[in-house]
User: Fold this.
Amino acid sequence: MLGIENLPKLAGPFLKTERKGPAAMIQQFEQDHGGGMAKDLAKNRRVVMPSWTEHEEIKELQKSYSRNKVRTTKYTFLSFIPKNLFEQLHRFANLYFIFLAALNFVPIVNAFQPEISIIPIVFVMSITAVKDLWEDQRRRKSDQKVNNRLCDVYDRKQKRYVERRWAEVCVGDLVRLCCNEIIPADMVLLHSSDPNGVCHIETANLDGETNLKQRQVVRDLPQGSEFVPENYSSHIECENPNNDLRRFRGFMEHPGKVRVGLHSENLLLRSCTVRNTETVIGIVVYAGHETKAMQNNSGPRYKRSKLERRLNMDVLWCVILLLLMCLIAAVGHGFWLSGLQNPIYMIPDDTHPALAAFYMFWTMIIVLQVLIPISLYVSIEIVKLGQIYFIQNDLDLYNPVLDTGVQCRALNITEDLGQIQFLFSDKTGTLTENRMLFRRCTVAGTEYPHHENGPFTSKHTPLILWCAVVPDPQLQAKLNTLSSAMRSPPRQQAAEISHILDFFLALTVCNTVVVSSPTQPRHVQMPVVRTPLRSLEEMKAMFQKLSLPRFPSSLSQNTDTPTSLTKKLFTRGRSKLLYEAESPDEAALVQAAKAYGCTLLGRSPEQVLVVVPGTGPLSIPLLHVLPFHSARKRMSVVVRHPLTGEVVVYTKGADNVIMELAEAAEDGFSREVMERTQRNLDQYAREGLRTLCVAKKVLEEQEYEAWLKRHEYAETSIENREELLLESAERLETNLTLLGATGIVDRLQEEVPETIEALQEAGIKVWVLTGDKQETAINIAFACKLLRPTDHILMETCEARLHELQHEIRQVTKEGVSEDDSSDCVLVIDGRTLDYTLQKELQGSFLELTCCCRSVICCRSTPLQKSQVVRLVRDKLKVMTLAIGDGANDVSMIQMADVGIGISGQEGMQAVMSSDFAISRFKFLRKLILVHGHWCYTRLANMILYFFYKNVMYVNLLFWYQFFCGFSGSTMTNSWVLIFFNLLFTSVPPIIYGVLDKDVSGETLLDLPDLYKSGQNSQAYLPSTFWMNILDAFYQSLVCFFIPYFAYTGSDIGVFSFGSPINGSALLIILLHQLIESRTVTWIHTAILLFSALFYYAFVLLFSLTCVTCNSPTNPLGIETKMMSDPLYYLVCGLTTVLALLPRILCRTFCNTICPSDLVRAQKMERLSAQDYSMSLRQWKENKAAQRLSSRHVPQNLSVNADMPHLTDCIAEAGAVLS
Amino acid sequence: MKNEGKSAQRPDNTAFTQQRLPAWQPILSAGIVIPGFLIIGLAFIGIGIGLFLTSQTIQVQEMDYTGVEKDSPCFRCTIPSNLNCTCEVTFSLSTLFTGPVFFYYGLSNYYQNFRRYGVSKDYNQLTGDTRYFKSRSPEEDCSPYSYDSNNNPIVPCGAIANSIFNDTFELYQIINGTKKQVPLDGRGISWWTDYNIKYRNPSPVNGSLAKAFDGTVKPINWPRPAYELDLTDPNNNGFLNQDFLVWMRRAALPQFRKLYRRITDGDYAAGLPAGNYSLTVHYNYPVLSFDGRKKVVFSNVSWMGGKNNFLGLAYLVVGSLCVVMSVVMLVVYAKFKFSDDDDA
Assistant:
């Protein structure tokens, strides 16, 4: 694991933890190991013994650990109804409606029959319950499948392995697994059929990474061909279950009180697959829900979208409106009552008018309850499901190479995609392919340009070619002198050649690459067919020619290399080697070394098998691997050199780190090498290459011994292990000798520049947050058109500069830049400076500065910084943010942003797992945001507005009627129709509208990214639009009520006959209103609209034909049929509908004609013929460009480029403070 | 890397999933709206003229007989002590009042739509189910008109039945000083569904409807029990009494009229000839306590129902509005069309 970008998720918090001194560490270590075993079973420890253990206390304890049966379902058969009810009642909206339903059971205030008023809430809750049940059923099925899987568990009574269901496995069981079997629980590896005690697992089920990971048998366990369970009686003490996949701490205590440290290398994780190894045996330490896999299994993400927050605001307004209307009715009722003296139609009653008014208030709340859109929340959920269906089914977002489409992991923030204002992008793997190709290198200060490795510009380069490296002739020639020419090279050259050899050796050895061969099954071992090693004497002679300063007389260490290993590894030799690396950089470097003849043949925990030019395969004893850590930004291996026998540390890491550690040696040569390397590094960075430095260090034996002692402490401690190991590694990686540096190219993904350009045109500010160095980042930024040649680049590298830059930028902006997106400045800031700017006092000015810039590039930033930047921008600027990344180092940023997008790429699935949406290429972002985002936002916003309108409009009809019935809560509509009107008759069209409406076609949205701005500014759903809709609803309801009123007043019309034309025209108005608001009408829309209308009429007609006493006291028998046979009904409906819709039609028409919005103009453009379309498209763009130009002062040559010397000063300053 | 067979995840390429369904895009622009408005406007003006003219042909004779004013013929009947008061309202028609003439009584400021009044009845009783005569399940609905002071069940119970309109009218044409009674037809004034389906009399016991009501008492305000509502026609009694049915169908608005009789028979089948008429009112129904008004209305009807000038006028206004708007839009369109062209 190398590469600066691959910082694990934990790096951030870890950096902050206090470093302890060595003394404290040892103390801690002793604490860990002190204390009795059983007595002192502290709560934060877990003790595991084989399940046949006799130790009673531990046996008891072991029983308390979770068993391996998993249950991810939320409900059981019995608990479903109470639990689901309980969960649903947590929703405020549901509570409100239950309150209303309950209110209806109070006789004094009830408005409808109590049974009717519970229909809506029962309807909504049962839909939700059915949905929940269905989801739960799917989980139950998969649980059953998992629990019923079989595995071999050792049975002590039968003294053999027997098949058991996964569910029956418990902690302390010995489990035997074969190749390609799935691991049933978290186990400590006790035995592997591999003679080296190694086992490979594939963690694809866990994190999606398909490369193999190596696991190791616990050290000091007897390794033989057979594992005898009876002989095993050690106990394991380890930490309590947690969800950290990368951490496992504990120790195994053998009967003889010997303790061996356990770490994640020894742990087989549940749901991973055993590969490459015939059989493994492990002891279960965590089972069932306590496994790391299950602990990491968090359900779908729930985020609340911006639109939903807005919506909740407006629901509150509706509540206020409702209260106001009820208050008016209550007061009206009070006054009406007090003005009467026992008329014949009054029910004699002693209630005081004021009290009656109070009762009336509650009655009215029941009558007008529909004002709060109950079905809105359910509808929104359905609409979002529909939108997700369409996003996931988009062919344009489908990647045929990987066979993946877009993956929507969060179900409820689709509309947020349409409102993005800031986009934070990772660089490697997101903008670029993350397919590393070795481009050039510098060894011992000499640059080898590798011209043949020319840039791959062709888009259709076969993927295989990516790994091919054409060796640089000069370097090849130098290396060849090792093997071919027997003459002794000049001394100067000899030193150089040994440098070169060391360089390639380091590239080959210093990594965690796993070698496998595609042509044969990984676990099968072929018979030995291989030429033996070239004689060591020959080698010795060769090295003597090179006159290495220290050359041991004896090479005895090498001779006891287990030949079996050598042979086994050689079997893979000639077949094509496959390198599987955790980071693509490593694979690229190993490939490069292979091209020069330094081939990595195989790797085991103890040794590495390599071929060095001029020699046969060499086995190099691997003493230690100090894995990559984001804080150290480097990795090291400690090996015993195959030829010299010395203990050598090879280190590979970020150039700035290595350069710091590589102390300039006394002699001028080293210093010169360093200077030249630095120059080359700068050059590489300017070309956009990823740079890595390689260094080595030769250890004296005693030095090594001393270090080893401390390191072993660190390895076996339980607490603070990471810290101790880190410290131990840092002690070793000092006084390095620089060998050279490499430049790796990472090609841009296709269509990245176009995508970024489109996003910027859409008004989205694109920031790049990368761990790469400044020059590389700038270079990539140029390549993807984030930076234009005319741009000012503002380098910010220390605090002082911040103010300076602000001043400068003010000067630029003063001259007319008002719109921030048209500014021509790009800020480049590095990690160290970022630390300053993220401090409270500077945040403001930093943001002020960034607001003036078109884009910001943060380089050398840690994952924590990335998320801090996102948080800062999101919280302080109150904007919608989107973060996109592909690696584990982007996880925190993805989680912080309003919308997180993961790219399923080379670096595993961690980013995808934590994202809301996962795509496979950066270019898909364009359509996802510009088209789907826009659609989802406008659709949902329009639907919500329509819902509000619909409810207010309908409810107001009832409200107006109160003025003519003494505010008594009477309705002129049958209560069934009243309830169903919103729930059934008019609820489907808005859903269809929310899923299918398309204001502008996808092609146009892509052609004119400008259109995205309407969503950014929330134009579809502004507070003013909400109130306009409410106002329109009031107007329409007035028309819809008073036209029938005047038409029928004074006549002999009955209560429910009067309601009939009102309902009929309300339905027409509501449906036609939707038609006006729709931007597209397909056959589905037409069918649904017709269906809704027909459904209403069918329902009321059927009701009025059949209902004799079914619905006392409002039996509607004969009403509708009679009304509809009267021409007056149609005359009233026609007039009402036209008059009600008139203002909206007029408004729309005038707006569309006089000052059409961009969206309307785009709609009009779409109607043009193809030729006219492209012409008007061009015109549009020209217009926009002209607008931009006119609103902006063309920048003069006012250069605010920070010059390099200044820069380095700053870095030095900052570095001093930080380190 | 490329594997032709491995595209299981590939979405279907259908017009629906790719959101490419052929669609009509209703952009409301002047070009569409102007002709649309013009057509609607003209159509509405046409309808409006038709409605207005039709409404003009309908004759209405309306007389308030509440007796609030001192000089009004029924003033003396408003004195509460004056029981069984009768008063006479005269009117004259200058032209033939074409038949069939509908005779309504009208009430105003009368809230039949008051919620608690509206629910105060028992449908099960009214369907003739004698089980509900004595023991009523939803006690509250009819309360406090369920039982009288002696705790006898009231049938029909509830406020609506109790408050039935009980003024009666006789119409006379005065020909040369003599009164000639105009026959009033009380059949078929209620809804067909009410008379035939919704309301049922209890099945007579021993051929007597009265026996079916045994053990119940009449509503407090009623002078006679339900089975004696119409002494002249034995078939017009109980719950199937036409006036009762009309009353039970509650009016929507506080100012309403209800059909009382039709004039369809004998000499008056063609309508009421010009001349003087006298209406004898048996004044029983108190309305002054709540400031109500009582009136009688003679009207004939057309295809659109009773006289209603509002609808015709409204159609005319909306129609002209549409036409005016289309003209305005035409002007606007002519003005902005060019700038539109610049963009497009």
About this structure: The mean pLDDT of chain A is 77. Chain A has 43 helices and 33 strands. The longest strand of chain A covers residues 617-629. Chain A touches chain B through 99 residues (CB under 8 Å).
